[in-house]
User: Fold this.
Amino acid sequence: MSKDILLYENGTGGEMKIISGDLVLTEILFNQVYLAFFGGNLQANTKGNELPDQQRFDYWANSLLFNGQPAKQFNSNLERALGETVYNSSGRIEIENAAKKDLEVLNGIVNTDVEVFILSESRLKVTVYLSGLNNNEQGELQFIWNNAKQEIVIEEQI
Assistant:
């Protein structure tokens, strides 16, 4: 498994973890889940037909690194759905499906599943289950989304 810079949520967006002036590295997949959900392209998904001189609102690496590879592109469908969807039973399913769509970038690396729970009219709990392709690795990532503040208020790795 390769190493990545450890990211964490501080309520104002993802931050790189630094200890004693050095970047902290990690080998866990939670960073990839975080980037898939909150990769920064809240306004638009990559369609592949964008013009070179057209202003783009999608994730910058989709065209630079993953041009023509939609299965590897980050599109933050969950982040968009969290802000645009009513928190009711049908909205919960829509949000859950958006999360599953974002996690498709991890196909072939890890098995994923997602559950979304409505906690109140402006709060959701999203739980992501990860298991290794050989079922020898398991992990769970949970976060509470506060729609009134448009931020993650609690994040846990189990």
Summary: Residues 71 and 104 are 7 Å apart (CA to CA). DSSP finds four helices and ten strands in the chain. Strands lie at 4-5, 7-9, 14-16, 18-19, 22-23, 25-26, 110-120, 123-132, 138-146, 151-157.
